[in-house]
Design goal:
140 residues; alpha+beta; 7-stranded antiparallel β-sheet; 4 helices; 31% helix
Length: 140
């Protein structure tokens, strides 16, 4: 996972339908590590009526999440350690950290806030070529 660029930060939040379509937003995952800090609870929120949620996307997203759950998303403690050592606090009032992972044709924008009592993880999922084009032309 690499640090977010300043122009990528807006893509770590839900946007309107037009921006979702232009940036190729598949959907987002919201998760937390539970009260013990070692569990992994999550919900999936489809965007664009789930039309981009293909078997290829599911495989890429599964690969990314499985890999990260063996490391920086293994627990709240591991997540906090990773964030402080590798990422920037991108989100001002939210006090969260931002990161990006590219896998195949997809890009995953992470907003991590490893604090008990809050959602720890948001992952916004995009078709990489469409997100990169939206970033290039300045769609915000």
């Amino acid at each position: 996972m690499r640090k977010l660029n300043k122009n990528e930060e807006a893509y770590a939040f839900s946007r309107n339908k037009e921006i979702d379509e232009a940036s190729g937003c598949v959907g987002h995952l919201r998760g937390d590590f539970g009260s013990a800090g070692t569990q992994f609870f999550h919900s999936w929120w489809p965007h664009q009526n789930d039309v981009l949620n293909t078997p290829e996307f599911k495989e890429a997203f599964g690969n990314v999440m499985d890999s990260l759950k063996r490391g920086c998303l293994g627990s709240r403690r591991e997540c906090a350690k990773f964030c402080w050592e590798n990422l920037d606090q991108n989100f001002g009032e939210y006090h969260g950290f931002g990161g990006r992972v590219d896998e195949g044709d997809y890009a995953f924008i992470f907003r991590l806030n490893p604090k008990r009592g809050d959602y720890d993880i948001y992952v916004y999922c995009y078709v990489r070529s469409m997100l990169n084009e939206a970033l290039k032309v300045g769609i915000q």
